[in-house]
Amino acid sequence: MTHRLIVTSCSVLVVPEQGPCRVETDQDILVEDGVIAWLGPAGSGPEAAGAETVDGTGLLAVPGLVNAHTHGPMTLMRGAAEDVSVEDWFNERVWPMEVNLTPADIGLGAELACAEMLLSGVTTFADHYFHAERIADAVVRTGIRADLAPTFFSSRGRAALEESAETAVALHGTGGGRVTASLGPHAPYTVDDADLVRLAELAKAAGLRIHIHAAEHLEQTESSLARRGITPIGVLERTGVLDAGALIAHGCGIVPEDLPTLAAHRDRTGVACCPKVYLKHALHPLTPVRSLLDAGVAVGAGTDGAAGHNTLDVWEAMRLIALTQKQAERDATWMTVSDTVLLATRGGARALGLGDRIGSLEPGRAADIVLVDLGGAHCRPVHDPVAALVYSARASDVRTVVVDGRVVVRDGRLLTVDLPALLAEIEARVPALLDTSHGRAVQHYDP
Amino acid sequence: MTHRLIVTSCSVLVVPEQGPCRVETDQDILVEDGVIAWLGPAGSGPEAAGAETVDGTGLLAVPGLVNAHTHGPMTLMRGAAEDVSVEDWFNERVWPMEVNLTPADIGLGAELACAEMLLSGVTTFADHYFHAERIADAVVRTGIRADLAPTFFSSRGRAALEESAETAVALHGTGGGRVTASLGPHAPYTVDDADLVRLAELAKAAGLRIHIHAAEHLEQTESSLARRGITPIGVLERTGVLDAGALIAHGCGIVPEDLPTLAAHRDRTGVACCPKVYLKHALHPLTPVRSLLDAGVAVGAGTDGAAGHNTLDVWEAMRLIALTQKQAERDATWMTVSDTVLLATRGGARALGLGDRIGSLEPGRAADIVLVDLGGAHCRPVHDPVAALVYSARASDVRTVVVDGRVVVRDGRLLTVDLPALLAEIEARVPALLDTSHGRAVQHYDP
Fold first, then answer.
1. CA-based nearest residue in chain A for residue B331
2. Among candidates B27, B2, B1, B5, which has minimal Cα distance to B14?
3. Mind listing the pLDDT tens digit for each residue in A7-39?
4. pTM higher than 0.95, yes or no?
5. Where do runs of H (alpha helix) occur along B270-351?
6. From first to last of its 447 residues, what are the pLDDT tens digits of chain A?
7. A189 and A249 in contact (C-beta within 8 Å)?
8. What ipTM was reported for this prediction?
9. Domain Amidohydrolase-related spans what residues (chains A, B) (predicted)?
10. How far apart are the CA of B46 and the nearest CA of chain A, in angstroms?
11. Which of B112, B282, B381 minimises the CB distance to A377?
12. What contacts 24+ positions apart, CB below 8 Å, involve B190-196?
């Protein structure tokens, strides 16, 4: 039997593929079996008797936000690695703490991540972590959508490579299609070329893409050029990763000579920009978003993991992209409010290879709908609702969230997670998580 | 009769003058006639029978945040000047719109500003605007604390100068001491030297300070050097403004040669850093916070007006200062979470000349207390509460706000403003506010 949901009398944010967003007022959105079936003036649509109803009066429906790069389970380490250099962040704090994580911990951290994201209107995320099967469980349980990449380092050996690929293949398409998967080599500086070649072959054979950190900052690119005479993006091309289709995390070290390479693969390449962590780690320059967009490459807004970003808040990521890109380009007129919203919706969707399924509210797309309340003192008067979304709204202005046609947050309350019980379980694990007296680490950082 | 208030069983954020902040758990705070009388382990304090009680269980008490520079009434223009250059922002959007403002509008905009700030835990703000008496009314009514500077341009003439000074003198000390005042010359590029000299004399005679925009960006400094052979900070020194005591807004164009001048007046000089607007206007460099702090100058966190900043959210300003200063200095280990909190509390208090009255929770200080809930999914687990305040918390995590010993926000609800009625009044004025068909402006921008 068809499941029908109607969101009534809301305003709708229309995000075109380019150009200004606009708002249509007093609209209904009819959803059938998880897909937007009809959208138009309130009361003028097809008969919706018996449909589950969400009253959208006074609220703005926006496409569910896409978090284009994160490590969900790292919520467990939120705030545990502050005011340190990139090297110390990896070698002294995060990679030693990760030794402590059990598969069960990863499930708990992932569930908290899903909860935080759903409550803030993020309906899809691209994840890169160990024990992705535990993350998939959390995705299925909580009702969010995700593309999961099982993290692989060459230091783990070839069997682990094959296993990570098998995990991805097994996860892809589960959860009624809400879970997709990518292969997850960590980075060109932790995965050797032979392993990248093998993973690219496996990805192509399985019809999957590759999610990888690359050219995270300029020093990595310079180091790669000095050691190997090739940029990290060049390595991705040479090993077949770009050919398979890649979601590249960060890319602050993408240099002009990389752009033709990326442009040649524009139909299957995305870059996730996560500015909060770049600023926090004192990086300069930032992701060259303007050049990437000019080259036709998809760019999405990401949070990276909460051990660096502290939140998984795409509102924050989106706002910081607008602010930092204006400054980086010394041009206050670019990265407009509409272009910024585009990155966090359609841009992220394209970057994840989901550009035809999510990212905008239109018939035929998955019903990933976020109802936002712009009525707070910090948003009013609303001269420009798009500006309000980018520069005034907070994650806490999210009222109701629908993913794949299912209401998962209603009036600010998450329906799918027992949050107090989850947090209590996590708190009990905190002392063990923070203990780095073992002196070990999952990997050494020396890009 | 003594009014007594007790906040029971909260955690308390201790913000020392330098070094790491710390959290004391299970504390009571006893307030008598607006002043913190006692603070210590719950249940061990003086008898508090009959005191008004606020249950702080599970909440963190932090000093009320200080917004070191804003233009409150510009909430009316929130989001009405996006994606434009600094020149167009002033000349095409904001200064033409300001022609439309009536004194009554300014009162409405100020009341909305006070409401927004109180709801987000800002208990004190430094304001710079026209019709400051209307803003004072809003401050008194809403229960917030403010230092108000009546804006003056030399284009308004000498009578307006004297009137602006008289307004400041009349306002200073009103509202039971919650209103203080400063003189408000707009900037060295809109107020001539003779007028700055006169205002500095008036300030010294009245025992008031001066709140002024200066060296807003490097191009202003370069322009001043080219036209006059002196930096804007040099102008402030030569005209006696620094001698009177100055709160300098922005200072992104403060150059190394200015530092000895500022250091010589360190006991009475503050600089307000408002990074969101600098990024939005594509400015580079930013306020040289490290050099200023090294010179002993007080630095506070500001939002500027909502026509540029879109919110009056000091949490956002504080976070952006940490992020942008780390990047600007290419040093991830400086502007620590504790140093950042300091700027938004004690730093702002000092910058406003209120360093002995507000900015920390200790006996003898005014009882400006904000209770924050770090229990949300976006803050947990809380490995480091100071990091949580800087990098995870949102304005919406503020639960209860006390100013001068009076509860003005309780459980997220503002007790002193009828917000729906206020917003309805403002909405009715929106078409008139946005109409710039008159072709006039309050001033022309050409620094």
1. A282
2. B27
3. 999 999 999 999 999 999 999 999 999 999 999
4. yes
5. 275-280, 289-294, 306-309, 314-329, 337-342, 348-351
6. 899 999 999 999 999 999 999 999 999 999 999 999 999 999 999 998 899 999 999 999 999 999 999 999 999 999 999 999 999 999 999 999 999 999 999 999 999 999 999 999 999 999 999 999 999 999 999 999 999 999 999 999 999 999 999 999 999 999 999 999 999 999 999 999 999 999 999 999 999 999 999 999 999 999 999 999 999 999 999 999 999 999 999 999 999 999 999 999 999 999 999 999 999 999 999 999 999 999 999 999 999 999 999 999 999 999 999 999 999 999 999 999 999 999 999 999 999 999 999 999 999 999 999 999 999 999 999 999 999 999 999 999 999 999 999 999 999 999 999 999 999 999 999 999 999 999 999 999 999
7. no
8. 0.98
9. 61-408
10. 34
11. B112
12. B190/B153, B190/B154, B190/B155, B190/B443, B191/B152, B191/B153, B191/B154, B192/B154, B193/B235, B193/B238, B193/B239, B195/B152, B195/B154, B195/B158, B195/B161, B196/B235, B196/B236, B196/B239, B196/B240, B196/B241
B311 at the A interface (CB within 8 A)?
yes
Q: Which two tokens stand for residue B172?
A: 């200073």
**Chain B contact present for A119, CB below 8 A:** yes
Nearest of B100, B68, B430 to residue A380 by alpha carbon: B430
Nearest by CB to residue A377, choosing from B89, B116, B283, is B116
Q: Which of A412, A408, A425, A410 is nearest to A124 (CA)?
A: A408
List CB contacts of A424: < 8 A, sequence separation 6 or more: none
* Packing angle, helices B158-171 and B132-142, rounded to 10: 20
B233 and B214 Cβ atoms separated by less than 8 Å: yes
| Numbers of helices and strands, H then E, in chain A | 18, 17
> In B76-133, at which residue ranges do the beta strands (DSSP E only) sit?
122-129
Q: Are B244 and B200 in contact (CB under 8 A)?
A: yes
Contact between B326 and A388 using a beta-carbon 8 Å cutoff: no
State pLDDT tens for residues A68-106. 999 999 999 999 999 999 999 999 999 999 999 999 999
Residue B43: HSE in the Cβ half-sphere, 13 Å Cα cutoff: 3
Amino acid at B199: L
Which of A283, A383, A417, A430 is the best mutation test for B, with the most CBs of B within 10 A? A383
Residues of A in contact with B80 (CB under 8 A): 383-384
From B280, which residue of chain A is nearest by alpha-carbon distance? A323
Which two structure tokens, joined as six digits, stand for A210? 């590759």
Please give the residue of chain A at the shortest CA–CA distance from B426.
A381
Instruction: Output DSSP code: residue A177.
Output: G
Is residue B316 helix, strand or coil?
helix
Q: Shortest Cα distance from A380 to chain B (angstroms)?
A: 7
Which 155-214 residues of chain A touch chain B by CB within 8 A?
none
CB contact under 8 A, B284 and A330: yes
Tell me which chain B residue has its CA closest to the CA of residue A86: B332
